[in-house]
Write the structure tokens for this entry.
Amino acid sequence: MTRLVSDRYGKAGIRLVQVTRGPGAHEVTDLTVDVLLTGDFAAAYLEGDNRDVLPTDTLRGTVYAFAGDGPVGEPEMFGLRLARHFLSASPAAGTAEVALVGDPWVRLGPHGFRRDGGWRRTARAVAGRDGEAVFGGVRDLVLLKTAGSAFSGFPRDAYTTLEETEDRLMATAVEAEWRYGPGADHGACARELPAVLASAFDAHDSRSVQHTMAAMAAAALDARGELDEIRMVLPNRHHLPVDLTPYGREDRGEVFVATDRPYGHIEGTFRR
Amino acid sequence: MTRLVSDRYGKAGIRLVQVTRGPGAHEVTDLTVDVLLTGDFAAAYLEGDNRDVLPTDTLRGTVYAFAGDGPVGEPEMFGLRLARHFLSASPAAGTAEVALVGDPWVRLGPHGFRRDGGWRRTARAVAGRDGEAVFGGVRDLVLLKTAGSAFSGFPRDAYTTLEETEDRLMATAVEAEWRYGPGADHGACARELPAVLASAFDAHDSRSVQHTMAAMAAAALDARGELDEIRMVLPNRHHLPVDLTPYGREDRGEVFVATDRPYGHIEGTFRR
Amino acid sequence: MTRLVSDRYGKAGIRLVQVTRGPGAHEVTDLTVDVLLTGDFAAAYLEGDNRDVLPTDTLRGTVYAFAGDGPVGEPEMFGLRLARHFLSASPAAGTAEVALVGDPWVRLGPHGFRRDGGWRRTARAVAGRDGEAVFGGVRDLVLLKTAGSAFSGFPRDAYTTLEETEDRLMATAVEAEWRYGPGADHGACARELPAVLASAFDAHDSRSVQHTMAAMAAAALDARGELDEIRMVLPNRHHLPVDLTPYGREDRGEVFVATDRPYGHIEGTFRR
Amino acid sequence: MTRLVSDRYGKAGIRLVQVTRGPGAHEVTDLTVDVLLTGDFAAAYLEGDNRDVLPTDTLRGTVYAFAGDGPVGEPEMFGLRLARHFLSASPAAGTAEVALVGDPWVRLGPHGFRRDGGWRRTARAVAGRDGEAVFGGVRDLVLLKTAGSAFSGFPRDAYTTLEETEDRLMATAVEAEWRYGPGADHGACARELPAVLASAFDAHDSRSVQHTMAAMAAAALDARGELDEIRMVLPNRHHLPVDLTPYGREDRGEVFVATDRPYGHIEGTFRR
């Protein structure tokens, strides 16, 4: 006999573009939505009994139907409205989670837009039988600093060949997610925090990626009192100096090769 | 004051190809390795004090050095040797996790190989101060069945437009990870289980993806008594019938469009 | 005044899965189809006059409608039937080109299949007012050899630091396209040539990727007299030996790092 | 006997990041460089004779060495300097082509930068025994318009089900490459033309993607007299209206699903 220990199901990659046609200009909202339900669905897995399984196609349709009610607004609250609905629509579900990734568009004219690839906004809402949680975030915010980054004072063992450095390039692609406290202004946080994180990265006198991450987290928690917590993942995208001396060039530390793999993976969760 | 609530760091995407040069023929092992350490690294984050931070470059070097000791063997044990070493080399670490993805190569001749894209093998070892766990798995095993797949008997609400069906295409890309019990034969499990999972998928009279997942999990747990648990993720890659009647063709249910997004996401964890 | 010097339009990424439901077993054909029309469409570009522009949605629909007529058969002839049709359906077109990529599926049972990721089959048909051409091919055939590969005797200049070697790893992902002569057996060529190319790669005593490419091309032209010409692209996927001496390991030339970028790009077109 | 009909080789994906350390602030240049040589390399292919084959590793090293001589400047001229050098360094080459893709970075502070994902700049230089050509361009410039886009007046056949529309969404990712005439200001063109193309897209009363492409090309040729020619590729990224009536919602034409595949492919080359 097989037992189901835990389970989860839903629909991923629901692409929603909403155009709000105002008198003078249009607005565009561009979201990719994932819906996930957790709960007691053992009968479906073990007996093929689907009576509790709201179809994933229904999850998809609900997202579009809710968008049909009018402007979706901030993705956090759109996600929360959906999560609450799914919890109600699926009695077998213990929690409903809606995760959204927003592609930002920059206005060219009243009806024209250019996609801004500087970063993508994220939001996530979790509704459970015992409570709710709402998250905002940013992804694909790529940063580089050419001064103010060191890495030294680390332990050495038989496999350590890395030299200590007081001056290296540091590059990363920020992934950050913060949990909102009550009364949070989601839109203001989402608009302000990418720049706050980038400025903290820029200004920091860094001893390591970890060290800079904590400074970025502190800046975010300082800037917006509504944040209860912030979690960050920073890949260390290594830029290696190219040795030019074999080519008869003096080495002035200006030429680097940007590498894809391997990369450092640094993550941390911070509170006040 | 910022507090560090949790943290993790390591190196991802370490590409290792090992050639074992036997007298008659060569063997090839092709792994991509991620190393992650969890523990008390707060001084690095909050004070920029790196004295406990074994560099991620050292994690990388250690993987290559261990491969220099001879054939790495099954990835599970190579991962466990590395995880144990990292736990010892990093006193501040509470756990060391090594995750490996293996690309399979098929022999063409004594020194020639073709990559088999049918699936990728995975392994994972976690060493902690209180114990260890070892996992095997498979990824990117893409399956399709053209009969024996239904989806009906599900609940309907105001957003449900999906019709019930007793005969649909079902396609997925299997991601499975099993936890080994003591004394497990890792190589035998890794070689046998992809075919076991595929056969169970093929043979099952499916009421849903969830239903088939449980049958696949049961087959794996039956086939190898060493498995304590198996976790699976099965995307439902929808194949939609194309309506040919506007083109004056009779509809015989033979022409489908394979869609990328959205897709169903189904996951479950199973034990005996 | 702007002039249109050349133009082309069509539909890309048409995903077609055809199930042929035989009495004992089903067959699956999985194709991704691109259609491109070249011709005199200047009125559309310069004047916004669409009277000659068969919609790309019609190109898509035609692909599905033709599949509705019964088993598509070998992709080369399915492509040619489509290309001929489009040339007839679009009087303004000078040529119609249909390119197809086929994903192979391996049978598990009468109605169950596993995708074989060893390589993808390609086909291309071009119909013009003055004649036709039909091509077959293979893509994503990944090969590696651990002996029999040298690179030496090359010229050296002030920027050459590469050492000569008589023994290196050689890896590539084969992309080959052959043009069929009249009366060719497309299916036989497509089934036989991937193995012919792989065997030639394996058996060759290589002085360079270029050298091995020519041997592979010769083997293909030898194996199938129907081929008029073969064009190949072979990326040189570099595998660099890892220096283990800093870690106190003897260097036995068995540990390599597989790199993604940069890579060598080698291409050539061959005839008898 | 196998004959070599045509050939080409080189190095692709050379990642170059250059930091220019001025007294007050740093500058960053981020390029990915491909080098391709065409010529008479038959001896390498057919006889394994490498005496004319400048190693691709040398091509890589030369790119870094040239960057070691000081700021690379505009990518067009850096590419042309390299192409001329390679033509000289490789007597067997008939042409040397250097293609560059630049990732733009936005300044955060004197030593800090954020990557701007709005588009990528491209450049290409071809040096041959008989002359030279230099190209600039833009890639990944994603545009959307929610009004001013129609598609009607097209021919209909038995496979045409598309309805005529006077009001649809139009979205694309611009790929444009222009050939410079003599005396061109490469930097000014590269900085000005993405906005010129985006504005023309925005302002145009579109009858089709082809129609808008011609307007964009005309605007570019008008804005910069140095351009001899411009070639554009515009995928038509379809946004399909979602029918909300099954969910009891009035259909106001505001909710769309953005699709990935299939997509229209439109290309054209324009001169004055």
